[in-house]
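Hi U.,

Before I forget, here's the chain from the pilot set. I'm dumping it here mostly so it's searchable later in email.
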Amino acid sequence: MKRKLPLKEVSALGFFMFALFLGAGNLIFPPLLGQQAGDTIVAAVVGFLLTGVGLPLLAVIAIAQAGGHFDTLFKRVHPIFALVFPFVVYLSIGPFFGIPRTGTVAYEIGVVPFLSGEDRIGLLLSTLVFFSVTFWMALHPAKLVDRVGKVLTPILFLFILMMAIRSFAAPIGDIGEATEKYESGAFIDGFLEGFLTMDAIGALAFGIVIIYRIQEKGITEPTDIRKYTIKAGIIAGIGLSFVYIALAYMGATSVSGVGLQENGGDILTAVTSQLFGGLGSAILAVVVTLACLTTSIGLVSACGEFLALRLKKVPYPWIIAVLCLFSFLMANLGLDQLISVSLPVLIAIYPITIVLIALALLHAVIPVASSVYIGAMIGAGLVSVVDGLMMAGIEIDAVSKLYAHLPMFDLGVGWLLPSVAGGLLGLIFRLAKRGRRRKTDIL
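Structure:
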């Protein structure tokens, strides 16, 4: 008899997925978008949701369609790609960038406002507690849904709901005018802002975590795994959309009260102080700390389970202990230097990830040849690697001038057309190869 998950368990999975995606960065993007979009906020938010929510959920679905295994998806490209690319993804979003950053952001927004100022001892103690809790929570992956989806996330969502209700019921001002950036083409600008969150990379890692949690509940049929993954994704998507809309509205109505700010963190801090007075800092501290903690737990667990599969002789607890210790050290000693290396890598691999997701979804409908995967990814990579080098401060003038003629290169999506062209060349190669084989058989 097939095992069915009750609505309570599906909801917990959805809240768990919601918490994995809602990191501190996701709290900061929408208020800035809302403040800059002003009276064009509806178009801007719709564009943002399509890529900021839709793209990561499509990535999770793509993993589910591939049976919940990285190898199945990546081997469609090439065995060497399947060996190397997952390591690059996990290390980049995990210990080399995402995990240490969660600890420092939780300290800067959740702790510093209550101190006389930033100090090394405060950072040391804060991150020590933060990563100790992360280690303890991630130590038993099978308990993650209960601990995160049923306990931490409802608390996080309750505080965000409190902020949303207050901002809608008593906004600190009227919706302002759009800045020059959003006066025309607000939808496209919002679309690109959602794209640049780079959540689809995290989705590749989180997708595996979600699918493992479903399998641990006795769901083993691929069709059922896909069904419950999609249901959890819909719940997470609704939650994320609500949060992003609320935060964008807070930003859009904040200009008259707090003025134009340079980043979303400053907007959130100023708005919560206006809305809640002295309690504002405490409410924001709880929201940001929980958002950082749930993301940290998810990243440590995802990286730990991936490395445990690859390093079969090393136990999972040892792996996550090393991940947490490394992240703790980097948060205190050298996060800026680590980010300066990791961020260009993320910029370089993100378009390749998008192409992989798109082709994986297409593959679920019609088989896609390996040559198409390879061609499309080479096309995207030729441009995205240059984007990564430019982010690292390395610019090759001749190449930059050539790529400047690509459509939307200045917007960060110049890789799109070369990727399509590479995929078509891969398809032509595949058809030509098949034609030669048929001709040989006839002869």
